[in-house]
Amino acid sequence: MRAAVLHEIGQDKLEVLDDVEAVGFGPGRVRIRVRATGLCHSDLSAMSGVLPQPAPFVPGHEGAGEVLEVGEGVTRVKPGDRVVVCWLPACGACPACRRGQTELCLAGFMNAGTPNFRRPGGDIFGFAGTGTFAEEVVVDAGCAVPIPDDVPFDIAALIGCGVTTGLGAALNTADVEAGSSVAVIGCGGVGISAIQGARLKGAAEIVAVDPVASRREAALAFGATQAVSPEELPGAKQLVTGGEGFDYVFEVVGRSATARTAYDNTRRGGTLVVVGAGAMDDFLQLNMFELFFDEKRILPSMYGGGDVLRSYERTIGLWRAGRIDLSGLITHRVALTEINEALDQMRTGAALRTCIEI
Fold first, then answer.
1. Under 8 Å CB-to-CB from 54, ≥6 apart: which residues?
2. Which of 152, 127, 156 is nearest to 144 (CA)?
3. pTM for the full predicted model
């Protein structure tokens, strides 16, 4: 089968090969025919080494498709079922799961150390234990989440990561208060989803911050009340909050510099939500006096900060009701053989989300 492979960390292009085999099928496992997958910035971060990932590997973790085969003991899905790939399945038994913090379950991360694919040259890993830039993937049964028949594969793929992450940051982690002021720094697919979440919660002012003009324009269409470049943020802060700072600031870039900007633009007693996934050697500096004196809450948001399966169901319900726009997030579509074009679209900021149709 075909799959897009990164041979070494640091390379900026993928090679589409046709001699890759999905491996690991057996009890408790599911074989999926991938139909659509989104390109998430985390895939680029893994390719560059910002996020830890053994190589060679097949990127992709935001996917949807059809079940081809189920292993012994699998009862939740059957061949022919439509599923979204969940890259962070909950085991249901660890301390985090028992506390109801299933997004902190580490079971899914353990899959990342086991090869998902093989070719004549040797084993190949799948990013985040999945690897959806492939025609087929074998995953643990918990990674295959059934979806209703009326949810298209491209929409389902987005729900598998970016939309769940952004919406959840606003709805779960921040629990944005109606009438509040919000700034979102970084307006790709995840940031736009955070904007939609803040709008759903009734935020009075939502300022989108991004260096790319097309993304700022898109943010306005998705619910932002104002869209500015990073250089224009101080003026927006003054105009919207009288210089006090925003009630909520979402950092959706994953860099200490933007996290510091987000902190500085959060009002005293306000909330900074860290959504972007950054590098282990990129440190955010705060002095102990400001940390105490400003009483700003700093809330990291992992995969939307809530139960993933419930978040999927909620997102589908909101989409069906027309309360959120998911199809509008897909600004580009490419075939798997054109995957490097999709990478360029993400790097330049031209795309909110590129759907790879497989």
1. 112, 113, 125
2. 156
3. 0.95
